[in-house]
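Hello Y.,

Per our agreement to keep a running log of every chain we model this quarter, I'm adding this entry. I've kept the format consistent with earlier entries: sequence first, then predicted structure.
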Amino acid sequence: MKKQLKDAEHSKKRAKIMLVDDEQMVIDSISTLLEMETDYAIFSFLSPIDALKMLKKEPVDVVISDFMMPDMDGLEFLAEARGLRPDTISILLTGYAHKDNAIRAINEVGLFQYIEKPWDNEQLELIIRNGLANKSLKESLQEKVRELDIANQELEQKVEIRTRALREKQAQLVQSAKMASLGKLSAGMSHELNNPAASLQRGAEQLRAAFSQLQAANLKIGTFSFLAAQLERLEALDEAADQRAKQPVNLDALSRIDREHELEVWLEEQKNDHALELVPSLVTLGYAPADLVELARNFSPAEFNVVVAWLCAAYTIHSLLTEIALSTNQISEIVKALKAYTYMDQAPRQSVDVHEGLDNTLIILSSKLKTGVDVRREYNNNLPFIEAYGSELNQVWTNIIDNAIGAMEGQGKIVLKTFQEDSWVVVEIKDTGPGIPQDIQEKIFDPFFTTKSPGEGTGLGLNISHNIIVQKHKGTVTVDSRPGETCFTVKLPINFENPQIEA
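Predicted structure for the entry above:
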């Protein structure tokens, strides 16, 4: 018989747990145990057929089923229940424990846990809590993916509309010789949109694969009966991964290689078969062998290896979400900069952190940097914020750094140095490329001048950057180049309304 709740309205807010067993004593025993937990609403059935009738009408969060029952066995029941409610957590309770049954249950009906009779009450409660936590996390991640898909679709539509508008504007400008230069700028801006748009598309594709890895790790985690303290540690690890995705650990190439080797050796000593895949994420998260030793104290060896895989997958998702958000903002900022140039709008002045703009630019260009470019930051920790048009400054950093990557053909070193000089903030961007010939250095800021092959550049990037720095910010930008080293120096006033006044 179905056991009715005293307060049906309140039960809708609680986790719904269904008990299915042909022995009333078993149902009464588990019900008594679970009713002590006020967050649970219990539904009990002696017949799996009656239980299926309820599942057709409304969902439940957890199903605990006996294995041997007269109408159908537990696996048949759970298979049909899964067909009706795929997201329900399934737990099989049986006195006929057998390895083949466990394997069949996991493979065929997506079983969350397999428990032998007589059961341990504390273990059963832990399994239910773990199952509910797993279900909640899965639903949360699915919702984030759905939101991302919707945002991506909306962004694609906006980009398509704005790109179409740019092309129409370009077609009109081409007809007028007086507006020819603006037409070329519009084409150049359309090209500039490709970098963040491609980064956004790539991030969305990688996110799907990373989400699959995280789901696999979550399923493995669900097989363990973690204590409350261990679950709290997992939550803390996830929060730390989210924060680290926004502020990744930055190491030079040699230090990173050394750290990865140390972690790989340590993980292999722990019989971890995926050490090589995990160490890049662990290094970026800031882990050293000592940190893993401390983490391992909280889990058994088998639990630890699964937790490390789960942590790396969670960090990858947080990192991709951060990169996608930055790409979305970059597209919006580039469009705003175009509007400002064409007098359709004015970019907002704001208090700008130069370091943040440089770091965001490196993230946007990360796919190009990964091919073999070592970036070293020599930042002044006390650098003041400046009054500036932030989106347009980011465009300057993108143009200069992207040109440096291209000049080095994806192999070399870039040094970003910042310091304060009286009432000015100075940014130096050095690369180890072949250098700019002396006879053309005075021309590189001219509009449409380019040393690239036809079709590879518009010749507008450095000209736009020069105009943003000099005209809009009353600063200066110069270049000093020789074979093996090119340095762009940008000087920006802390307050460009009065650039000569001491800050």
